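pls read this stuff:
=====
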Amino acid sequence: MGHLGEETLSPECGVAFQGPTSYQAIQISSFINSSWAQTQGSGWLGDVQIHGWDSAANRAVFLKPWSKGNFSDEEVNELEELIQVYLSGFVLEVQDHASEFQMEYPFEIQGIAGCKLYPSGGTVRFLQGALGGLDFLSLKNYSCVPTPEGSSRAQCICELISQYKGIRDIGEKLLFETCPRYLLGVLEAGKAELQRPVKPEAWLSTGPSPGPGHLLLVCHVSGFYPKPVWVMWMRGEQEQRDTQRGDILPYADGTWYLRVTLDVAAQEAAGLLCRVRHSSLGGQDVVLYWGNRISIGLIFLAIIVPFLILLIGLLFWFLKHWLSNDIPLHEHDMFIIHLSMDTCGDSML
């Protein structure tokens, strides 16, 4: 069952911030036997989880201060009650018809429902069901449609759902009216957090050797937000088609990490670069050249540290020379020495 979410960014729109544009509720119901079942629920704004479901208390959990959007407490309570009624009824109906539809315990049912906004202002609603991880049915034009994988069992379940007009009407209202209104409100309520741009950090390394005479070049891009990002190994302006892109992985703080690799002959590595485009960079790409991995900071340290050591050594040599010859120091000399030591200390800081 697919998870909606923007994961890539084309080079042409690298400076445009998109942010999340979809809300989806996910249900996972595990049926252990005919008398015991457990349901987990969560709500996602794009790739950001903003709701959970406490199955013990039978209540929604709001994970962000703005998770309620612009809904009143009364509206939120009504939605909670609807979800409670739906979940209890869903479990009972499945258990009652499990043998009829030849479902063998234990089994798991997954569901995802929500809505998505398009830049043009249009809205699309979606609902999908899966059994044991395989697509089972979906909603199209207000109708339940079995998938090819669902076979005749899915067709029978769609026919059963069509008989429950009251439940179907509530579901359609939630999906086609409530969801778009909630999505617009929660995007506005969470705008300060959702639209905060965080610039990526990038660095190069080598991975495990792919074979004799070859290098695995690795471009790491870390700590960026929002999720869409474009990363490519290049030679000049020429994209390297063998570039391999890993999955975009989440950090606990809501930012993302990406690893992009290139298998290349060792003698051909010179002249390659990794280019990173992200909406937080204001159109200024990050470009890392393979082979130029000594930073300006290291160059600065390599120059300044020996100079400081030499200066301190000379200072102590003069002090030792003056003291061994019992040469009195005048106030002017002491001031110069004191000033020199202060200068050294400031330089080291």
The chain has three domains: 20-194, 201-289, 299-348. The radius of gyration is 31 Å. Confidence is low (pLDDT under 50) at residues 1-17, 293-300, 331-337, 343-349.
